[in-house]
Each structure stands twice: as structure tokens, then as C-alpha cells.
Design a protein that fits this description.
Blueprint: E1 10-12, E2 15-17, E3 21-23, H1 31-41, E4 45-49, H2 50-53, H3 58-71, E5 75-78, H4 85-99, E6 103-106, E7 109-111, E8 116-117, H5 122-131, E9 135-140, H6 144-152, E10 159-160, H7 174-183, E11 189-191, H8 197-205, E12 210-213, H9 215-218, H10 223-243, H11 264-268
Parallel strand pairs: 3-4, 3-12, 4-5, 6-9, 9-10, 11-12
Antiparallel strand pairs: 1-2, 7-8
The protein binds 1-deoxy-D-xylulose-5-phosphate.
Active site: 105
Pathway: Cofactor biosynthesis; thiamine diphosphate biosynthesis
Enzyme class: transferase
Amino acid sequence: MTSSPTDDALVLYGQTFASRLLLGTARYPSPSVLEAAVQRARPAMLTASLRRQGSSGADAGNSFWELLRRLDVPILPNTAGCHSVQEAVTTSHMAREVFNTPWIKLELIGDDYTLQPDTLNLVQAAAQLIKDGFKVLPYCTEDLVLCQRLVDVGCQAVMPWAAPIGTGRGPMNPYALQLLRERLDVPLLVDAGLGLPSHACQVMEWGYDGVLLNTAVALAQDPVTMAGAFADAVQAGRAARRAGTMAAQDAAQASTPVLGTPFWHHAHA
Ligand SMILES: CC(=O)[C@@H](O)[C@H](O)COP(=O)(O)O
């Protein structure tokens, strides 16, 4: 059985997306490389931070917004750099006006060294934003109870990290990420810390619904090719998940057919 990507689209808050890859827009060597990487990957959404990208001078800011408009990919504003609930809520409201979108990637930083999310206040911020009508995609750790609470307050998707932002280390806690997938029914996207396409493929094989990444593409020697590699890896991992993986075995089993038993079900029926 084959299926086209549209048979198996990512659905977040009732909206359908053709891709399961979300891409960040920071740290690229140039706007033209960013543009080409986005054209290659055709991501579902592009993250943009009001605070970071607006801070490099008015002209740079304007041309960045023009580039985003030209790319014609839905924008996911990001509360990057916010350290308090009030700051995150205020930034989200500003982003909604600037970008004219109800989507928000809720990033509430609790520790500046690891950029670890503030797990103690994240739920309160998410609850407020949901009440205010936002479609909240919270960046969080892989803690099961935290993710459950985020769902309880109305988040229709949750985005646990693989590893700290910008480290490229890949999934640090495979057990917890897989447990989360088993326990939660909402869409789950891994956000942050992916360094290789194989990391993205791996989490998709575990049943994750998508990935959000930035640094691994932006800092690659060839970001455009890497953007394509991640897009392909996400699709491969998703296809493998849907295909159903074999159960790993302890003992070797010959895979070369013995004469007269070319198919397993003939020999064992
Ligand atoms: C772009 C964005 O939203 C980042 O905050 C995100 O978390 C990506 O992390 P990496 O740069 O580690 O992929």
C-alpha cells in the first residue's frame, strides 16, 4: 500500500499541513541561503522571534519580514528569550498583531545556560494564552506529567526537546520520549537539539508527528542540502512508522530462503 503525503497530513488545532518539518529562521549565513533552504525543505511552518530578529537594525528587520512574506510559509512566532509568564504573554499578544496569526511557539526559558524551559511556570503561561485564543505549541522537556498538564489546560500539541537548543546532540532521553508517545494522544513534535537527519528519522519512527529544528540546518556547511536531508529523513521516519517495524529478535534467523520455502507464510502456515 502506498500513500501520498496528503493522505497522511499533520493536523494541528484542526489545521492541515503538508509537511511534518518546522524550520527556524535564525543563524543562517545569509538571507539568500535561508530562502534557498526553505525552498528546498518546504516546511509546514517557519519560526520567527520578534525579539531576536527585530533587534539587528530597522533595515535588517524590514528585509527579514519581506523575505518571510515572499517565502509564503505560515509563520510560527516564537517567544524566544522570555523569562516570565507575563513577558511571554505580552510578547505573544504583540506577535499576534505583527504577524496576524493566532499561532505561538511558547518558549519560557528557566535557565540561561542550558536554555531549559521553565517547567514550573510553563503550564500557567500556556493556560493564559489558550484562554486568550492562541494556538499554543509549547516547547517543554520530555517530562510526562508536565506534558499531561499542558494538554489538560488545552494545548492540542506538545513539543518536548530532544536536547538543549543548539547542541545538536539528538535525543538525550529516548526512554522518556518513547514513553511520552505511548501515553499521550495529542500530536507530539520534537523541538530542539536535533543535529542529524537520523535523529529526526528516529523520533518519527517512534511515532512523533513532526520535528522543529534550526541550528542543524543553519550551521551545516551546506544548509540547503541539509534542509533537504532533514525533509527526506522526516518523511522516511514517518513512512517507517506507518509501515510497522519488525520486532527486534535476540537470536539470528536466516533471512535467505531455503529451497521450496520462499515466503514465510507458506513455510509456516
Ligand atoms: C527556532 C526555534 O524555535 C528554536 O528555539 C528551536 O528550539 C530549535 O532548536 P535547534 O536550534 O536546537 O534545532
